[in-house]
Amino acid sequence: MLFFIAMTVRDALNQAMDEEMKRDDRVFLLGEEVAQYDGAYKVSKGLWKKWGDDRIIDTPITEMGFAGIAVGAAFAGLRPICEFMTFNFSMQAIDQIINSAAKTYYMSAGRVSVPIVFRGPNGAAAGVAAQHSQDFSAWFAHCPGLKVLAPYSAEDAKGLLKAAIRDDNPAVCLVILVILPTMSSLNLGIGAEIAAQVMESNAFNFLDAPLLRVTGVDVPMPYTHILEQAALPTVEHVVSTCKKSLNL
């Protein structure tokens, strides 16, 4: 008989890191407020008390600095999990992610592996305005050398994070703060790439109607609640798009 346990995505991520730290003493977590504060969104709750300062490391507010430390640790054979409080702040460390982590295996002719996971919340939240509401999944997916994960369910979150930690290549694990249809803009989202691949494959012959996308508006995220809601996809948008596809 199978038993299922209800679990939040937050707890699934926490459990994945805890289990992998138990399995492999090379795994450690570093980032802003991940230790004594249990993480900005409590994803690392209890891990510092269990694993201590050597495995759960609080860093200064310097994304370029601690991302570089994490990449260097991966070069040396450790398996760091580098947490950004929000992926909006990962832009401060973009050179470490794109040029140091993603390209080293290729540029070393396969001699240097980079087993690192960059993780953190991604996408729109509520009332945090333009600089804290961006979706970077399409950005990172367009960088050769990175594996990009965007789990929706707790099951996916735990399984994908564990697989990423065990992988010898760099991975970016993006967990959206608000579960909505694709929150990227119409022109830049992952949905555009999926649509293109479907249209270019044999699957095109099985379509009964053209692909339609439900996305956010192509504007910086407004701070005002009314405008914020107008910029994000809603249930009404999904329903109206389905009706359009069905010619209803």
From TrEMBL:
It is an enzyme of class 1 (oxidoreductase). Pfam families: Transket_pyr, Transketolase_C. It comes from the Eukaryota. GO terms for molecular function: pyruvate dehydrogenase (acetyl-transferring) activity. One of its GO terms (biological process) is pyruvate decarboxylation to acetyl-CoA. One of its GO terms (cellular component) is mitochondrion. Its cofactor is thiamine diphosphate. Its EC number is 1.2.4.1. Residues 7-182 form the Transketolase-like pyrimidine-binding domain. It catalyses: N(6)-[(R)-lipoyl]-L-lysyl-[protein] + pyruvate + H(+) = N(6)-[(R)-S(8)-acetyldihydrolipoyl]-L-lysyl-[protein] + CO2. InterPro entries: PDHB_mito-type, THDP-binding, Transketo_C/PFOR_II, Transketolase-like_Pyr-bd, Transketolase_C. CDD domains: TPP_PYR_E1-PDHc-beta_like (cd07036). Keywords: Mitochondrion, Oxidoreductase, Pyruvate, Thiamine pyrophosphate. It is found in: Mitochondrion. The pyruvate dehydrogenase complex catalyzes the overall conversion of pyruvate to acetyl-CoA and CO2. This is Pyruvate dehydrogenase E1 component subunit beta. It comes from Heterorhabditis bacteriophora (Entomopathogenic nematode worm).
